[in-house]
Amino acid sequence: MPKKTVAIILIFILCFSQVAYGQEKPQDTLRISLVGDILLDRAVAQYIENNDVDYPWEKATSIFGASDLVLGNLETSVGIGGQIDINKQYTFQSKPETLKGMVNAGVHGVAIANNHILDYGQEGFVQTLNYLDAYGIKYAGGGKNIEVALKPVVWEMKGMKIGFLAFSRVIYDVSWYATEKRPGILSAYDHYTKQVSETIRKAREQVDFLIVSVHWGKELAQYPEQNEIKLGRMMIDSGADVIMGHHPHVLQGIEFYKNKPIVYSLGNFVFSSTSQLSRTSMIFNLEIGPEGILNSYVIPVKINHCQPTPVEGKEGEEVIGILNAISQQWDTRILKNGDIVGNIEYAKRKISNLSEDVPLVDSGENKSVLKDRRAEKLEKLSSFLGYDFYYDEGANMATLMKENELLTFDYGQEAIMIQREKKNILRSIFIYKPLHLMSKLFKWGFRYIDD
């Protein structure tokens, strides 16, 4: 088979597939990945014992490897011993060595403001902090005193300062609150609203982009309550750039408030999930630059045997369908490839070879990315194939043209159209028919426009 024939079939697989999670990013763009609840105890601990510390993360590590910053919620104490409260229904304590798997996977930081971090008392909590420090995992939302707990975690990368704060509206006992002389976590209950707002405002003055984690809501509830919506918006008004929520253990919706995302619940991630809903999860991704949020998208996930596993095809569409059903109340929509569109106006950035700012994403109802990422890949390789390349932004269609032959990829309508080079049996066998077969595989439309 000729080299160019092989190449065009490979391009079709890479650039025509309806799912394109985890796309390449420009060198000056930061990619941030946010995930939900992380538990390294109970059934997860058993899987680790039977395999190794990397087991829970194996299917997600490659995704995290493409991100500059990965954050989650640590839903467990970490250590050996401590004072357990026998009246608390669920208590978790993970072995210190399990943190190595988290580091190996590429997790940079965790929220510790939640209802399990002090399951083994003050002693267990201080152990948790010490082990996180030992493994180089930064944490937000708690500390050995209130002064430490109120300070944002800060990462400096690619000329930007990224801050991280965490709060909880689900706290088992008042003794868990951090004070001047007592280790503990930060509250987001109503009587702490002023402190929350002021903490966010001060943190935002120190950084270029601020992520705020909040533990809130009712377990297994798929829709946020009004007090959560009000609090999330207040946090944005105070200076947060994105809100990452958890505690319900299931996915909730995504709202863009003043063009900033509130992810009401990221669901479970590494967790001993059993029900279908609690096993349904996602990785929420942001691409940011000095201009602000350039793009956002989700990677659908199913938790199988305590392993969060990115899914595509029918399973991926099911996850996206759940998110769309909940998020439609805020005019937020997730496309099949994971891109988030709707009531959003993404930041514009300067493209070096153009004289004007070009928005990466249009908020129109029928299109998301002005130049679909798959079309960008196709353009890069078209010259190698000897084709002229044309792209129609409005229709989101890419066309490869050579002499009497046209190959048109319609990303908006998910279809391919071909004007064949007639009387060329080899091209029919090695290009047109394989493309027709793969269009069926990817469930796209297909037709010859010369028939």
Automatic annotation (TrEMBL):
<dbReference type="Pfam" id="PF09587">
    <property type="entry name" value="PGA_cap"/>
</dbReference>
<dbReference type="InterPro" id="IPR029052">
    <property type="entry name" value="Metallo-depent_PP-like"/>
</dbReference>
<dbReference type="InterPro" id="IPR019079">
    <property type="entry name" value="Capsule_synth_CapA"/>
</dbReference>
<keyword id="KW-0732">Signal</keyword>
<comment type="similarity">
    <text>Belongs to the CapA family.</text>
</comment>
<protein>
    <submittedName>
        <fullName>Poly-gamma-glutamate synthesis protein (Capsule biosynthesis protein)</fullName>
    </submittedName>
</protein>
<feature type="domain" description="Capsule synthesis protein CapA">
    <location>
        <begin position="31"/>
        <end position="273"/>
    </location>
</feature>
<dbReference type="InterPro" id="IPR052169">
    <property type="entry name" value="CW_Biosynth-Accessory"/>
</dbReference>
<feature type="signal peptide">
    <location>
        <begin position="1"/>
        <end position="22"/>
    </location>
</feature>
